[in-house]
Amino acid sequence: MASNLKRKRGGEPTPRKSPKLDIEESVAGSDDEGFDEGEDSGSEGEEWGGTGTAMDVDRRGPSSSKPKKAPTGEELRAIREATDLYRSSSFKLQIDALLPNVRPKQSRTVPLEKFLLKLHTFLMQLPSVEPQHPLEAARKLQKKGVAVSYCAPLPTEDTNWKVAFEKPDDITLVGSWPNKVSVKAKDGFQYGVDIAVQMPDGLFQEKDYLNARFFQKKAFYLASLANSMQSTKSGLNVDVFYESTAGDPRLTKLVLVPKPDGSQTDFTKLNARVCIIPSVSPSNPIPLHRLSPAHSNLRVNDGANLPTPVYNNALLTAFSPKPHLLSTYNLIHSIPAFADALTLLRIWANQRGFGEGSKLCVKGFENAGNLWPALLELLINGEDSTTRGAPPRKPLGKGLSSYQLFKSALSCLATQDFSKHPALAKSASKHKYPPSEYQANHTATLVDSSSLVNALSYIPPGCIDMIRHEAAKTIETLQSSALAVDPFTDVFLHDHRDVATRFDIIFKVDLSSAKARKSSLHEALDFGSATNHLLFNMNALLRKALGDRIHAVAFLQPSSTNSLPSTRPLTQAHPSTSSTIFVGLVLDPASAFNLVQLGPAADSTDLEALTAFQELWGSKSEMRRFKDGRIAESVVWDVKTADERAHVPAMVVRHILQWHFGLGEEHVQTWQSAYDSVIRMPKEIATKYIQGAGSSMGFKGAMQAFDRLVKSVKALDDELPLSLVNASPISESLRYTSTFSPVPLTQSLAAALPPNARYLQPINIVFEFEQSGKWPDELKAIQKIKLAFFESIGTGLMKSVEGLKASVVLGSGNITDSNELMDKAYLEIVTPEGWAFHARIWHNREATLLDRILDDNGPNPHVVVSKKRKQQERKGKEYLDALEAKEVYDRRFMHAPRHHRAVAALNHQYAAFSGTCRLVKRWFASHWFLGGHVSEEAVELLCAQFFVLDGKHVGTDVDIPKNTLSVVPSTKERGFAMVMRFLSEWKWEEGGLWVCLYGPKKAEGEEESDGAPAVPKTAPAKASGTGVWTVSTDMDKDGKLWTRKGPDVIVAKRIRAIAGATWNYMQTMEDGTFNVQGMFIHPTRDYDFLVHLNPSVIPRYVHNIAADESLLGKGKFANDRLRKQEQDLVLPGFDPARSLFDDLQRTYADTFRIFFDPYGGDTYGAVWDPTLKESRPFRVLGGYSSVPVKKENEKAKDRGLVALNDSAVLGEIERLGSDLVKSVLKQR
Amino acid sequence: MSPSTSSTTVNGFTALPVSYPSSATHYIYARRHEGSEKPNASTRNRKTTDLPTGRTLFLVNVPPDATERELVLLFKPCGTVEKVVLDFDAHDSQDDDDSDDGGEDEDAEKDGDRAMQEDVPSRKRRKVAKEEVPKVVPLPHAPHRTIRKTGLTAYVVFLDASSLDRVSSLATKTRPWSTSSEEPSGLAHYSAMFRNLRPPLDLIQEHVDTYMELFEYKLAKSKQKSKYRKGEAIVDDDGFTLVTRGGAYGKTLGGGVTVASKRFQRSGETSSRRRRPKEKQEKEGFYAFQRAEKQRSELLNLKKKWEEDKAKVEKLKQSRKFKPY
Questions:
Q1: Would the pTM of this model clear 0.90, i.e. be above it?
Q2: Is the pLDDT of residue A1033 over 90?
Q3: Which of A302, A759, B51, B321 could form a disulfide bond with A1100, CB atoms 3.0-4.6 angstroms apart?
């Protein structure tokens, strides 16, 4: 209102102007009627209040064309900042929107504060406990139900020191809570509110650092605290638990969880817990110099004083809470973006399992709370000048944005090798211990400015590799511009903890019977817990053995689950450990599948290396002489088939676990072979094929057969009117992506096989002959001439190649043959080895002739055709036929060969591509989508997107950088999981997919400038299709080429639902109930009716996912075979089940939607078109089989309603498929 | 199925119940065929002559796999069926199942070498009377079913008009659908088709040869008819020369008149390369106000984008997209 008044006052001096300006304003704002009155008048008021009216008018002059004002300086600064300091301005806005969601709600902290006050007063008035013998003290507490978590070496009866309790010197709120940088944990875990309770100096002596004496005293102190808090007298009303950081009993703390009672101090709603961490003051009598990583503080009987770095680190932890609090506080206050950056970093880490959670988390990071501030501190303050050769890391500027800090933290994680170069953040005072000591005794080092704790000391080396790998991956995501997913979503919002897409190979290891072959008591004591020690060693050994085969070997375990919580009741002294662990490998495809691992040469003098090698590999290591004359100690992995080669890394892991830890086959579970069996024929049949065809099977055999065929056709040059220029394969059998590896089928082999295993997949190829003007200039005649060509090629081949059979196939045999403009005939060639080819001829004149029919302007563009006639032509048969023919022509002769080449090339670049495609195709098929609804090429594109990424490396011979390769799946299992995840998440309604199969995507502008002329704008109107997926490539910008026919909305939604179910099922890998076969079993409940086929007459039944072996037996009668010898048994591509499916799909396109597994499925499933459920008025071209609805009364007579005659349709199906259909089952 | 006692009519169609072996009843709707009401449609002319009004029955919802023979069997009780026309609207030449006989007349240019060899016989034939055009040897063809889209229409032409009246009597009783054994169905259909589609090679050769012969014959015929001779200008009665594009080297037909390229006719552009946009007369950023305005519009754009982003994020926020877990 005030502004309104102002406006009136200001308006007075210029009464003449105001109406005009008002008009302008209203014109400008007319597009939104109800613009905000208050705001608008406010802004106007300001301007009008100015004295210089002339200037005002001037400023308003140009703006009258635009409704918006120029941004103010303030706004401008914010905008500039957002665009310059962040990835993009929307990225900044997204970050801003994200951050409040992961922080505790301030409104709910009041009860917590009250509770903390209460706790403080309670703790400060605790009575002291007299010094007593540790065991005696423990017994006393035991009676009260509190166990003291003494750690090894345990105190004995003859220990001469005492434990006591006195009220704490000081109680401080530490950790991230007081600094307000708490970040919500995954899986609904609670916020931690850490309280450091400072134990009085008087309780300790100088020598307490020795033999865990400090820890025993601390344990007693904690137990006494727990005891007093637990009693109802305390009035705290909390549940008290023990929890040990990283499962180390030396790092035990108390966890207080409120009991919901609705009192003032009940902070249940905050979803937080209070942790009590015992700490010591810097004035503690224990000398810090005794705690350097190189010092030995555990005296074991064997006398050798080996350093105890982990032990020392654990002791130092007690000193650290307060210094950490202070350093974080300082950073937050000196660097504005620090808190946000820290939050981002922790969200990132949480999403990737580097934190707590009830799903699989990376081992060693569960309680790495102070790792993140330490990392940021390292970046901000820079590195202390160290012994390492390279110059120390420079401090970063203080004005960086949160995003910049976050990104540099990632790049530090990705590039810095913490094991070779200990990272010590620069601190005001000198570091207490030299970096060389860290390097010598810790596997990896990151020390913050307080110079106490090594934040990485608990983390196994393989898991550090893992975080490096993840960081590199994220940086790649942030840098790339052409990804399907929004980078922000991918980096911060997606949960990346699923093992299936993250690791190439996953093992589930049962540790219960693991026993290290070589174990030192000293090391075990240093680690504090036997399991930790075992896992640490196992990880290190695996990492060493796998060497350059992997990017990372990570150990994964849920940090806390319902069955095995991380907290334990006070009666339990030591933490319990889980007996299973998951091992995940991220492979480096360049060397992961090497068969030979070379050790030191025979003549090498380095005996130490030799014994180390032998020690590592055990019985596998042997002296070998290689082809190039070298003699060396080596390990060779035995591999029989190409499939098995993918198992080499798994073999390495199994061997190491067996040799070093006594874990046999039964304790180590993988899923690789189960995946293999999904894309293989049943064993019995496969052996027959191998006997029949020998070594020329598989993709290689198919390619050789193709090359031979091309050669023999080229040899016919003289007999053919035109010579063959090119033969392009367009078959998935020749690009490694057919689900089953191709096999030849000869007459004799066919006789030995049961009739339902005699399918021979023809291989499609395209012949291109030299140009000639002698072709007829008419489409129908061209098709006839093609027949003549086929005839002469066929006759020629049969003459020149003995045993070869060729026949001309006139078409598909169904109603589609009536289109005479379309290319439909092909030459069927069955080579003497039993390979079948379907060859077609590409004649490029066809395109021109078809275009003439389709062209809007007709053949003579200058002749004006009346609109009416044009429309009539549009409907005419010729036009529709031409449309169809053109589509087939484009797909078959233009796009298919190109697609084939690109996919085949991809195969040579990425070993896992073929397997991924085959698995995904199998999945699509077994869920009855492939063929009928989703084309093979579309599936290949879906798979390819995970390999080509942004297309940078497509078609280059340059070695692909390792970073990229680690993002690309290296095994088919991972590829499959990625595709499933994608399918379950893909919002195809919102946008299509762009696959950079032919190189990087061009920028928008570029595309317009040079893309347009290449594709003439007059391209014929595309035949309408129902497909909803858009999968574009550079060659097919519309993205409908392979998805025009389907899947339609219903099917696409179903695919998403089933992929989601599959994806969820994959998650059960974590609890061990996962079964690969289960993902390929199709639920048939949802279908309205099922048509069961007779499996004994389906030639492809052998490919069925759940083929019944008994049905694949020999024919029933012995003389059956004799009779069969006479007739032709090799029928390439003869698949009546598929033909019937195609016929039904076409015939009843408007009646129901039918589904079928093309790979030997024995059931069709279908759902009625829901719109047909209700009766409708009769129409001549209703398009479905109907039954007149009986009139209810005389009045309804005229309406002439009809309804779907479903029983007649089912009867027709039975008749159409007589001998083929076993039964039709109506489910609904 | 118990035979229904009374006939059902829907919109003037009589529903003829037909029982299937699996105890289901299918309904074929029948009506007298009335000739096309619009005689002007030239394409329909043939239709009307083919389908005499008085004795033609129009059927709707014929089973998708029905053959002529089966329909003849069905309507046998009413009288002798002269012919059956299935799926009339789709294609005229669909009467018989063979789609590959290619007896279509079509004219276009053609000079294939194959045809050159056959030039002699075709020329001979040209001389004889019109009826004796070269005959195409049809591709061998064993009967197999064509499965059409469901809800198909058909015409049944009776020999005698009185048969039509008897059709309604069919409606009262459910009659079984008799499948003819000559065209197998089901598995046998598919294996038969597999064989049928692979005829002997020599027959194919014969077929193609005769086809091309006919093609050649027709081509020659149309050439004869057309006034155009190579190298001669076509001058019409008014003395205008017809100028068209053509010839192997872009030469015009009758004379040296150049004709605009196809591209120009379509798009109005003369060459494939795009012309560079003409340089603007006025220099940009020359005057101070231009610079100021430019700067200002840049700022405005910046803000606009910012606001758009903000709105986008706000929208996402509302859909609770920013809850990471």
A1: no
A2: no
A3: A759
